[in-house]
Amino acid sequence: QVQLVESGGGLVQAGGSLRLSCAASGGTFSSHAMGWFRQGPGKEREFVAAINRSGSSTVYADSVEGRFTISRDNAKNTVYLQMNSLKPEDTAVYYCAAGRLLTRVAAGGNSVDYWGKGTLVTVSS
Question: First and final CA of the chain: distance in angstroms?
Answer without folding.
Answer: 40
